[in-house]
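agent: user wants the full assembly modeled, not chains individually. Plan: 1) parse entity lines 2) check alphabet per entity 3) run joint structure prediction 4) return tokens. Steps 1-2 passed, two entities, 949 residues total. Proceeding.
--- entities ---
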Amino acid sequence: MTTSIQRTWTAVCAAGAVPEWSGVAALLEGGTQVAIFRLPGDRWYALSNIDPISGAAVLSRGIVGDAGGVPVVASPVYKERFDLRTGSCLDAEGVSVAAYRVRVTDGVVEVEFSP
Amino acid sequence: MRKLVVVGHGMVAHRLVEAVRAEDKTGEWRIVVLAEEARPAYDRVALTSYVDTWDPASLALEGADYADDPMVELRLGDAVVSVDRERKTVVTEAGYEQSYDALVLATGSRPFVPPVPGHDLPGCFVYRTIEDLDAIREAAQRPGRGRRSAVVIGGGLLGLEAAKALRDMGLSPHVVEMAPRLMPLQVDEGGGGLLRRLITDLDVTVHTGTSTDAIEPDGERYLAKLGNGTELDVDLVVFSAGIRPRDDLARSSGLEVGARGGILVDDTCRTSDPAVHAIGECAAVDGKVYGIVAPGYAMAEVVAARLTGGEGTFPEPDMSTKLKLMGVDVASFGDAHAATEGALEVAFNDAVAGTYKKLVVSDDSTTLLGGVLVGDASEFNTLRAMVGRPLPAEPGAILAPAGGGAAVGVDALPDAAQICSCNAVSKGAITHAITEEGCDSVAKIKGCTRAGTACGSCVPLLGKLLTACGVEQSKALCEHFTQSRAELFQILQATRITTFSEMIDRYGTGTGCAICKPAVASILATLGNGHILAGEQATLQDTNDKFLANLQRNGTYSVVPRIPGGEITPEKLMVIAQVAMDFGLYTKITGGQRIDLFGATVDQLPLIWRRLVDAGFESGHAYGKSLRTVKSCVGSTWCRYGVQDSVGLAIELELRYRGLRSPHKLKSAVSGCARECAEARSKDFGIIATDKGWNLYVGGNGGATPRHADLLVSEVDTETLIRTIDRFLMFYVRTADRLQRTAPWVEEMEGGLDHLRAVIVDDKLGICEDLDAAMAKHVGDYADEWRGVLEDPEKLAKFTSFVNAPGTPDPTISFRTERDQKVPVLLGIPEVKQ
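--- prediction returned ---
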């Protein structure tokens, strides 16, 4: 018997609404907040929008760049950096945020999410 | 417990007390200091700087009043007049008697006034104490016709300082020197010619090779008749013809004196009476007296060591001197006159560049014995430290331009070499502080070793030692750029690159970070690159600039409309109040004399600003590394003490510099009189009114390491003031490091305040035209950033809560009430400290 993974993709916005090197915040069912980032070369990432250090829902507003080649966003509150691929925090041991799968279908940004 | 009595309280006496207190672990010595002057010891070496502020506190020596030390008693204004060595007591002028177990005489010197007829006329002064300068100032300010002039008799180190002080007081100075050249003790014939030219360029008339025969009253003025026939019409006379040790107490109490005066002591500073020591300028160590402070400090340390059970003898003193008079550098060290037998002299005299450098070396030319530097004394520190040691290269190679300073770097110095001669700190002691005691900055080295805390001329060497020890003093901005901020500024300016992506592509590596993106964004903003939220620039902005508001801990923002100079009409106050009430914002008055509104969500910001902009407000840039405010006291408009319109000027300045982005925030203030109610001296640039114009102070900061601003120019008119501030700001913006405030920027500047003044007042680097043009562009291009957002749908679109639910507020934000206003309810406690 085979099992297939059911993925629920939620449409969030038009791809054009997200400039390269920036992030936007999306509100999902049940109050979950997701921060979606776009890098050049059509690379998209999504992390929880809540900064675990300060508790503020602001990660989408951070500066996006790299740390030794690792794509990161720096929290606007205290500047800790989070790996865009995994949500792991580079500056605080044992700290991380949820990372979500994200894709663009027909110009629409979709996040994989189950409430 | 024994009694130590110190007679006199100058710099050397103060050093003695400090040293004894530091080394007296068992509390053996109770100290009584009996001073003639009515003030505690002050920095007499810096006496000339008193003219800048006329504030005695600027010369104060830390801890010189011993207020917190119960083991030290300081009695001021009552000179000791006799010593009874049999009974071991001293008696003061007022009749106070003090017994002693150990006595230290530190009575210093008196100025020597040659017996020139007329030397005691009311217009004649000496130049040694604060009171002397006050008296000179009073005489200089007496009303008279035309430009007043003065003559300084004595063209040595102190005489030239006095001439400069008189010039700063508005008089036209003459200097008369008996020797064929100025500073005859320190400078040789070759250097003397150049020095004369440089001093004359400073508006001082020099007369050398002549004595002064008489001073005669001439109506309200005086006629100074020189030996060479010249007659000078002057308003006052200052004698600076040398000093004589005050050894009266020694003579009257039967102690031996030196052949040429001074209290005779051996190399442990002991007089002919074992219970009595003498230190400082009054002491003649093996018959020799010293007129500068460094040997005096050494004597104080020797005596302190001996009193507390240690040992010590007076070492060979460092007689090097460095004079700095508004860009005229003169330095002399070691055997400057080649008195050593067989010594050779190698000189490089560049009349075009205005420099003269001479090295004196041993007869086999391998050992450095001394030198004279005129016009460019930048190598003074390293060369001085090399005296008595082998030269790393041929003297000619060191002096010639190609050799520059590279041949004599800090690496060439042995550990025993003295880096700071004022406090006798060796290279070894400093490197130990760096490598073993964790001193990783100039400030920490100063704290640990005292190096650099007296005259400050060795400070550049401290920086070089840090680098030599491998302390990361790299100015590289971050992992993506190896250049310093100042270098990036130059690149952006020269290449006219307007995007971060092109910049990092051509000059950096990787894709950038939260350090370099905002740094480049700031430079682009200063150079003028349109609205900071336009295009790619929006993605570079730091936390607050990104939304033109200050992010608070719960993700909301604060709003600060600009209130220039802190002046506002009741009508405008009502607008702010109404906006705050309509949006339910928490209000607070800021230190910058304006109003802050808190609790705005990102989507509310444009709505709030629409109301403010419509009412005539504009952005206050509270969110930027930029000019914040120019505070004011109410000034001459209303205040009965105000001498100038401080509010008017504050508003003019704030409107001129609003929007300027800089390495760190800029704060300013204007006070309408010397009472300084606007606290201008704690500002990056602060202005204090006098009845003659404005005084400009720069480099003041609040924050974790507060610093008072230094006086840059005084009594200037408004036009000159503004031009000077323009240049100060643009020079700072161009050359400072990332996040470097103006205080550390000025502190670390090589050449310090004098160099800053030379660059922006005297245009030494020839960049003032550029700086002026850059400021003019800033003023011309200014536009309110918030209005710019409100008028552009693309920028407005960024101010949404959620891209897929723009009308829905952030559900994590909630408030409670405290003191009748709303305050955040915080989600979660920070578990990991930032």
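agent: reporting back. Chain A is about 0% helix and 45% strand. The longest strand of chain A covers residues 33-39.
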